[in-house]
Amino acid sequence: MKDNINYILNHLGEEREQYYQAVAPPIFQSSNFTFKDVAKMRTSLQDEMNTPFYTRGCNPTVAILRKKVAALEGAEDALIFSSGSAAIAAAVLSQVKQGDHIICVAKPYGWTFKLLDRLLKRFGVESTFVDGTDAANYEAAIQENTKLLFLESPNSITFELQDIKAVVAIAKKHNCVTIIDNSYCSPLYQKPIEMGVDMVTHSASKYLNGHSDIVAGVLCGSQAFMKQVFESEYMTLGGIIAPNDAWLMIRGLRTLPMRMERVANTTEKVVAYLEQHPKVERVNYPFSPNFPQYELAKKQMKRATGLFSMQIKADSIAEVETFCNALQLFLLACSWGGHESLIFPMCVLYDSQNYGNTTLPWNLIRFYIGFEEAEDLIGDFEQAFECL
Ligand SMILES: *Cc1c(COP(=O)(O)O)cnc(C)c1O
What we know:
Strand order of the largest sheet: 1-7-6-5-4-2-3
Order of helices and strands: HHHEHEHEHEHEHEEHHHEHEHEEEH
Structural class: alpha/beta
Largest sheet: 7 strands, mixed
Strand content: 15-25%
Radius of gyration: 22 Å
Number of domains: 2
Oligomer: single chain
CATH class of the largest domain: Alpha Beta
Distance between the termini: 54 Å
CATH topology of the largest domain: Aspartate Aminotransferase, domain 2
Shape: globular
Bound molecules: pyridoxal-5'-phosphate
Number of strands: 12
CATH superfamily of the largest domain: Type I PLP-dependent aspartate aminotransferase-like (Major domain)
């Protein structure tokens, strides 16, 4: 019962008898909590992580969310942050000190890269970025001072996977901790904790909240890991979620399974259409039989979700821009995971006059499929291709 998805989303963590049997929980918009006597105040302070004392540590609305998110990931506990980046930074910082070394998959989320490559470098922590499509590259990069292996499978632009079980085995052999950014799959379509990963992060701004109206992040793991992060990075850096945003996320979570299913179904149809289109050079989608790691994707993910990227046959950035501007149902924007279809062309990263030597192909466009009808989105593609 406890790990039944409907029970988790509808009931787990909701102590309705505490608030007039209200179906929807209240937003405990209070920074502070008071006590009848000194003894009760002392008891609460001794377990600041789980008893309302001060909202930076524990807030009852946020506590409901923690229980649901942990159960969704199959983890013992979870912490909720003000952004996905705050969750990632807290998790990574909790595992390293000056002189340590981290191995991270190449091309992680941009701000994860900057955390490792710039911020942590200032404090004497070095990182190596490896091609994660072969787990052996993690092992080859192990040093005596390696403490942490970081995964993001798949990533959110080109979708390369890591063989999660293989990387976990390497980590265990060398006494390293593993953290994975599981944002692409959501907790429904990939279960890293079951595969032995120590800590799982999500940008909850994407699927978990799912309505493009808050920025938030989550971190899941064992009680021991969560306590360690709570007592240090969580409380000292203080990147907590506000009670009102936690409430919005509880509301967003109620529909997670149907949102994920809708998005995955529509994306499969759109990808199948694009893969046979003569003006498409290549589509990157983990559950396409053309994807180089299709077998691994099928093995460790339940489904692929609403993000994919494609290279179109174009002669110039100007032509890519014409195509993107012609799409009517896709909003030009970053992020993803909400109700609305989105488009992020890599050429926004490049000067349109000077793009000979770019890391990501200039004709690569990332798409997110929202709740629109597949036929309508395909029709929109059809008319945009005609503008090329
Ligand atoms: C958006 C994103 C993040 C960062 O999350 P924020 O909530 O924007 O801070 C991290 N990882 C991935 C894969 C993302 O897409």
